[in-house]
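Field notebook, page 394. I keep forgetting to write these up properly, so this time I am using the form the group agreed on. The chain and the ligand, zinc ion, are recorded exactly as supplied. Prediction of the bound pose follows.
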Amino acid sequence: MGQKIPLTVREVPSGKQVLDWIIPKEWNIREAYIKNSRGERIVDLRSSNLHVMSYSAPVHAHLGLKELSEHIYTLPEQPDLIPYRTSYYSENWAFCMSHAQFLSLEDDIYEVFIDSDLKLGHLTFGEAKHQGQTTDEVLLSAHICHPSLANDNCSGLALLACLAERLASRKTRYTYRFLFAPATIGAITWLAENFDSLKIKHGLVMSCVGDGGGPTYKSSRLGDAMIDRAMRHVLTYSFPHADLLDFIPYGYDERQYCSPGFNLPVGLFQRSRFGTFPEYHTSADNLDFIKPKHLASSFNAIWDAIDVLESNRRLLNTKPYGEPQLGRYDLYSPVGGDKRTAERNMAMLWILNLSDGQQTLLDIAERSKLPFKVIRDAAEVLESRGLLSECDAN
Ligand code: ZN
């Protein structure tokens, strides 16, 4: 990630209190396997890191099949897949394997070995920043806890890095913060570290952004924040069947950003909703499951929403008494007929009518049911002819 964007890596020590939580011990694993009595490794961490339950305590023992079975997770309903399991807050160990493999295990004495440790260390998160013209901030965040699963959550990391890379060359009004942190405890730590200096005006959490489902947008707790309106608006045009959901206090890190003490305007963007696709938290959430074209359309939806945040403003009609005679300003295309010309003409009428110094371009786009881009471009033309003047930035 650091090769693509200038990433600052921060470490916060185990045991530190962050809001109502304590940073846990750090888990590291070097090697793990199950060997049969012939000395063959039938399960090996090196072939898939899903084979060991995350946060497993170290173990080295010889067990019969019955005892071993108590430390094995499988998915009987999806017998060819390896499940992804974690045990963050209770000390235990386990292996994960396909149910088919589990059924094939013979009665034998197995050697189990997990070379891991759980000791005082650090919670690590990465952050990149793009400085805008103002100190008002946009927070874009993705969780990093199990990046070996492709859709949840490597796709979110890739999308965030691409957005950061693209924004680097753009002059922006807002300052952008890109946060790569473990789910829940990472977001809580980041909030604790930034408690006194939060300037977040808009924000988005993204994960599961590479599959062909959805897309799904879950509004912030505020429900009608500008990010909610911007996302709903762009999805209406790019994905007419998008799932637009109200806020619920369950999900990803928007739960922390939208906790009542912070109540930040942060929504959640996904393709398929987490937990609803059969590949979720299994070995089938791999690179065959996600597609470049879905990542690209996810990127475009978020990029369009950023464009709304950046370009939204209030304008004032300088000739508000009667309609201005548009022909005199070289604005009316006398040759009618094509749809884009008709749309542009309607956009001009809406903008002139609603630009009373109160309503923003997004208000006008919503009320006219025209795409924001059409409104924004038409407003620029009207402004260049002196028919609109700039009010305060909103
Ligand atoms: Zn997950």
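OBSERVATIONS:
- The chain has ten helices and 19 strands.
- Residues 292-311 form the longest helix (20 residues).
FOLLOW-UP: compare against the apo run.
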